[in-house]
Task: structure prediction
Amino acid sequence: VYYVHAFMQLPPENRDDVNFVVPTGNFGNVFAGWMIHQMGLPVDQFIVSTNQNDTLCRLFNTGEYKPETVTPSYAPSMDIQVASNFARFLYYHNEKNADKTLSQMAQFMAEGSIDVPNFTASNFEATACSDKEIIENIKMVKAEFDYLVCPHTACAFQDIDLNKTNVVLATAPPAKFPEVMKKALGEAPTADALEALKKKKIVNYPIDARARVVHRGVGCHARA
Result:
């Protein structure tokens, strides 16, 4: 929904050649955007922005899906090598052939990689961002736009084409990452809501390690 909402906020003269730039590890958010594009939203490109764990970047540039060892980064929520939503894109790449998709995923599980036959990236492009580049991008965005981005959002500014209309999906308050922000800018930002949460007492509710008990607890939490 927010892809459509963001697009409709753009002035009509800026709705041609629109890129959505999405920091991603699990490929769910940007895949949702691609789905709404298939339904008619006129997006030029979806830029898949990864950190140094760049399985998806390599996929869209080479057609090979080959996870490697996860390397902890400044953008930890993107420290993913096996994107669980990849199979969904593969299904559409295979023209909704479920049997073919299942066979390819079985091959991937057995061999640890897969060369996708006749791979086409559709209107996806992909970039990868090292920790050093995350720091540089945080500095650049602050200098150019007077805006603070968290380490995950900073990945979206890697190799970004500033001559196009880019809608960048931000991910988290920069205050959640004080050490990285201080490394980039010399000081750590704060957020009132986050500081208020830090002052609250942590409350734990021990429960038995049994499926029925856990399920009941999750249900209560959802209703709350």
The chain has a mean pLDDT of 93. The CA atoms of residues 64 and 115 lie 4 Å apart. The beta strands are 18-23, 45-50, 64-65, 114-115, 124-128, 165-168. The first strand starts at residue 18 and ends at 23.
